[in-house]
Amino acid sequence: MITATETKLPRINTALPGPKSQLVIDHDKKFMSPSYMRDYPMVAERGYGAIVEDPDGNAFLDFAAGIAVCSTGHCHPKVVAAIQKQAAELIHIAGNDFYHRHMPQLAERLVGIMPKSHHYRVFFGNSGTEAVEGAIKLARYATKRDKLIAFYGCFHGRTLGSLSLTASKNTQRKGFGTLLGGVEHIPYPYAYRCALGHTKETCGGEIIELLEQQIFKRLFAPEEVAAIIVEPIQGEGGFIPAPAFFLQELQRICNKNGIMLILDEVQAGMGRTGKWWAYDHAGITPDIVLTAKGIASGMPISAFIAKESVMQWKPGSHGTTYGGNPVCVASALATMDLIEGGLMANAQKVGDYIFGKIQDWPKRFKIVGDIRGKGLMIGVEIVRDQETKEKAQDLRDRVIDNAFHRGLLTLSSGENSIRISPPLIIDEEQADCAIGILEESIRAAEKTL
Ligand SMILES: Cc1ncc(COP(=O)(O)O)c(C=O)c1O
Over the stretch 159-174, which tens digit does the pLDDT of each residue have? Predict the structure, then answer.
């Protein structure tokens, strides 16, 4: 139920940013690290459902969800109640040193959504990058090997281990010196730009061949490789899904060579694609799965979930102070209840609805090159020319800025794509509103060509 002052659609009253928002921006500019990269001057004051309001009373429809984090929307009453109740009982105890019932409760819940063929165990951290760091360590520990294989375009985080895997934008790596050794990157299947003309279902066979016939024969013997880490849908890289057969082939290679298959579900997981995990669409059984963002509606928690046969390290070999914090766990349990109780199905339903309405954009708009994704993880690639597929970052930025001024929050992804990743609670009316705003915003950007 929304109150009299609340809305479920955008309401823009001032020029943007409004005067109160501008004060926050000026304050921020004075004290905050300049490394933050805000796409546009949005200042958030409060949120409810799929709406975020700024201090000037403007209401924005949020199709960014804090980078796919606010899966249940902003401040869902059941999540807020769970957080409040837990905060009044116990805020912190350090799961590294003491037991509390919340950690195994959430761990059991996560194991319950893993493939039934294996028993899995869980380690909790605080952020996506921390899950990646832990998974690198576990894969090395379990295999007694140190080489890692990742993909161009992938994003796994910004701490030094995960940054060694990340190959998204060179600004993310530039200036930070030598990273982890023994990491090799190979291409990711990108059907829209496939040099061999493969489709979204068939692109990537030559990458499998490259891995087996070149990388394994010329660079790393497979028995030296600890892990292959892959995003089932590249998030920061442009919302690009890997074909099911490609993930199945990676699994075959990993099984054959004793390599850990790590699925980074930090952005794509937790029901966003209509299934708990995006890899579920390929029916594979990973060795290690990483989750963060969508798991706790905005409370900072991450996890890596590994086969019991893999997670065999000794007490003290890995730990953290805050991971599995009771308040974050309470939020995660409430979030998983809501995802299971209808939001995952809604992501599929409204995602299909949006696809149905926008799949002909490449025919209707000359700057839209490709529409892709699954459920409520949808990418729109913007090009200067559909024939040459020249990437148009400037036009993409203009579309996003136009949408902001019309009351819709979206984010960029990759060099020239827009990401559509709303909370999983949105309905068709909100989807229609966002589609209308995006169409106007694309049309306005096209006029500048
Ligand atoms: C797939 C993926 N892995 C890891 C990360 C890192 O997560 P965090 O920013 O919480 O460290 C991200 C963040 O965008 C991500 O999208």
Answer: 999 999 999 999 999 9
As a whole number, mean pLDDT of residues 98-119 equals: 97
In this prediction, residues 343-366 reach a mean pLDDT of 98
In angstroms, the CA 317 to CA 206 distance is 39
Instruction: Determine the pLDDT at residue 195.
Output: 85
CB 303 within 8 A of CB 291: yes
pLDDT score for 196: 87
Cα 208 to Cα 214: distance, rounded to the nearest angstrom: 10
What residues pair up with 289 in beta bridges, in sequence order?
263, 305
Q: What is the pLDDT of residue 79?
A: 98
Residues 122-153: b if buried by 16+ CB within 10 A, e if exposed: bbbbbbbbbbbbbbbbbbbbbbebbbbbbbeb
Best mutation site among 36, 70, 264, 267 for ligand 1 pocket (most ligand atoms within 8 Å of CB): 267
DSSP code of residue 314: P
pLDDT of residue 15: 97
> 169 alpha carbon to ligand 1 midpoint, in Å?
14
Residue 5 pLDDT exceeds 90: no
Q: Rounded to an integer, what distance in angstroms lies between the CA atom of residue 263 and that of residue 290?
A: 6
Reduced 3-state DSSP string for 11-36: ECCCCCCCHHHHHHHHHHHHHCCCCC
**Ligand 1 surroundings by CB, under 6 angstroms:** 67, 127-129, 132, 155-157, 231, 235-236, 264, 266-267, 292
Q: Is the pLDDT of residue 2 over 70?
A: no
Q: Whose CA is nearest to atom 3 of ligand 1?
A: 156
Shortest-distance Cα residue to atom 7 of ligand 1: 128
- Distance CA(207)–CA(152), nearest Å, equals 11
Q: Which atom of ligand 1 is nearest to the CA of 300?
A: 10
Q: 419 CA to middle of ligand 1, Å?
A: 15
- Choose one of 37, 133, 156, 172 to mutate for the ligand 1 pocket test, by most ligand atoms within 8 angstroms of C-beta: 156
CB neighbourhood size of 14 (10 A): 14
Query: Residues near 265 by Cβ (< 8 Å), separated by ≥ 6?
Result: 231, 232, 277, 278, 279, 289, 290, 291
Mean of the pLDDT values across residues 383-403? 98
Report the distance separating Cα 408 and Cα 60, nearest Å: 5
pLDDT(96) > 80: yes
**pLDDT above 80 for 4:** no
Which residue's CA is minimally distant from atom 16 of ligand 1?
267
